Structures are given as C-alpha cells and as structure tokens.
Amino acid sequence: MTDASAIAAYWNAAASAFDEEPDHGLREAGTRAAWDRLLRRWAPPPPADVLDLGCGTGSLAALLAGAGHRVTGVDLAPAMVEAARAKLDAAGLPGRFLLGDAAAPPVGRERFDMVVVRHLMWTLPDPRAALRDWAGRIRPGGTLLLVEGRWRQSADAAPYVDGAAALPWTGGVLPDALRAAVAPLASEITLEDLTGDLGLWGREVDDVRYALVARMR
After folding, report:
1. How far is CA 140 from CA 39, 179, 215, in A?
2. What pTM was estimated for this model as a whole?
3. What Rg value do the Cα atoms of the chain yield, rounded?
4. Which is nearest to 120 in space by CA: 21, 202, 53?
5. 168-191: per-residue pLDDT in tens?
6. Domains in the chain and their CATH numbers?
7. 3-state secondary structure (DSSP) of residue 17
C-alpha cells in the first residue's frame, strides 16, 4: 500500500521542475493552444463549474478559467497547490485550489458540471472507487473527462514510491479497461486517440495516449 505522505513528498519535490515538460507547463503557444482546443471541445458551455483533480501546477485550470469556467483544483502536494494558485494569480484568472486527495476531493456536497482528470489513474490505490466518487460529484448530464494512457517507459521504470508497483493501474491504463470501468456510471462514452497529436505533447510519442469523455447519468 502506498503512503499518502510519501506520495505528497514525491510530488512536492517534483513541483519546481514540473512545468519543464511541454504538456505540463504548456509554455509553448502551440502546445497551449492544442490543449485549449481539446478542453473547449469537450467542456460544457461557459460558465460551468469544473473540478480539476490532480491539478498539478494548474495549467489546465488556467485554460479552463480563461475559457470562462469556474474552476476548483485539488492536489495532494502543497507545492503543486501553491504553484497553481500563483499561476492563475499571475494571469489574472479566478480559481480555487484545495489541498487534498484527488480520489476523495474535499469539496463537501458540491456538484460540478465537469470533472477533469489528467494522467492520474496510475497513482490510485483503488481507481474504480475513485471513479464512483467522481461520478457522484457530477450533475446529471455532466461530463467526466479522463486524459489517460499507457506509457512505454513505465515497463522498466522503478516505482516512484514504495508500494507503487502493486497499484492496479501502475504505468497507466488501456482504453478498453478504462471504458469498462466507467461504463456502469455513464450514459455515453467517447474515446479519442491522442497519440498522434504532436501539438498536445510538444514532441513525438510512441506509447498510448487518449481521452475518454463520459456523459454522466
């Protein structure tokens, strides 16, 4: 079993360099525009209430806020939360960022029009329980957007914290497995292959990357 304090410490240490990855920091105009197009296509009309789970340094939250949505971000690592707040403040964008477990976000009884989760499922001890939790936080007819993949380098990588190798979806999850997990919760599911969209990643990739968009019951 992974330890939450060890996970938070890992991502705290990673926060200062996190945005150096093209698809994390979205510093290049083309990469930022590619993610902006993706989010605008799948999001409800603004203004919508959007929950960004595992928000990291807030790059997607900034795009969503810039599109006119009311954004709440949640991350387990204090340094990530601080970076996200600073990023939106610097851009003059509104946003709320909370410290907490993305698998059980600390938002009380609030409900949202959209929940966005990018590259998080591989870190979760019980991803199916997290999906059920997230579904319960989405208003009927709302959207769950999961940007996921199965990463080639994960086959040889050492576990990022003790116990991570035993996580159900360590290294990522393939589209059919994620669809099967989401299907009981959704009225409609769309899968979109993102592997060949170089604009999203800022470089060529040779693993599996995709978006799952679910309309909730």
Report:
1. 20, 19, 8
2. 0.96
3. 16
4. 53
5. 999 899 999 999 999 999 999 999
6. 4-216 (3.40.50.150)
7. helix
